[in-house]
Amino acid sequence: MDKYDVIVIGAGPAGLLAAGRAAELGGNVLVLEKMKQPGRKLLITGKGRCNITNSAPISEFITHVYPKGRFLKNAFSQFYSKEIIGLLRKYGVDVKLERGGRYFPADNKAADVLKALLKWVEKSGVEIRCNHKVEELLIENNKIVGLRANGRTFKARHVVLATGGKSYPATGSTGDGYRLAKEAGHTLELARPALVPLETAGNMAQQLQGLNLKNVKAVVWSNHKKIGEDFGEMIFTHFGLSGPIILTLSRMVVDELQKDNKVEISIDLKPALDDQKLDKRLLRDLNEHGKKQVSNIFRSWLPASLIPVFIDLLKLDPAKPCHQVSAKERKQIRVLLKNLRFTVTKSRSFKEAIITAGGVPTNEITAKTMESKLVKGLYFAGEIIDLDAETGGYNLQIAYSTGWLAGNSSMATE
Known about the structure:
The chain is an alpha+beta fold. The chain folds into two domains: 2-192 and 358-412, FAD/NAD(P)-binding domain (3-Layer(bba) Sandwich), CATH 3.50.50; 197-347, no CATH class. The chain is built from 14 helices and 20 strands. Strands 1, 2, 7, 8, 9, 10 and 19 form a seven-stranded mixed sheet that branches. Helix 5 (81-90) packs across helix 6 (110-124) and helix 10 crosses helix 13 (327-338). The two termini are 21 Å apart.
């Protein structure tokens, strides 16, 4: 029978940080990974570039985390962006800082980040066994004593559950950890896709497929009430909307759709101009180009692929001279420039979600240690916890920090 101080379930960033830290403190540590190789999901983060972390101070960082970012204050105070960057540099990964405080590997290779973490855990003495699926946790008198994997019993004083969520299931994130947590007595917040593209009604998005808009504002409306907005970049797809600001807003959209509310997203194509300034600009342009066809003047207002969509929505004659555009028509143009609306029908599936919202509630986990409040010796790290964040390196930092703290706490109690 195999006996260990700490067994970590899952070889993603949270699991590797937990294992490496526990081994650094002298623990006999085993990592069990059900896939053929460790860290598969890490390899595809940031479109293969790996957005390692973010430069935001802790007070700002936690405002980008939902539903209870303050739960992470203790974890971040012990292991934060400076520490993960220092660890990666020690094992050969130089980093660069890009807009939005985003840190990436200098050579844009997620594989280098994974190699560095694996070097560290190997040097620390961690044993990793792949192709090992955990079937059950072994609990006696509300205390972890081990687990069963591949039909074998493994004894352990501490177990760290770092199995990830349900997003990108091909990488191994299929929700196994939720079942194990539930069997251990934990409740679960419903797992749902987050940072996920959105499908929209009609064919307007399809007509605009591939169009990338920068410096626009997207507003989410639920039952005609404004509930959120974001500014930046988005893209139209064959099914609807995607891109950074859409992914950020998708969390609230998914939650509203689950309430069966009518959800719309309006795009403000001219957020730098209020109604009055925009109207003045439209009037000026129409007057200056009075003899031109109205479809031509749209080129100074919109990307080319948007023009036929606008002309159609406005029911304008494209050959109409600019000086014949009425005040009413000008108002309709202005309103559409500030409020191009799409009805959201649903989100894309977990296969396209960058992360998972939901999981083990933070009120069932001790923030200072990441230990379960229900089962002694059971710890949680990473995406299995009911915490998710916006894009920008925030989610990976949550994984590192909670993993490190879980590994540290497991040996601190020895």
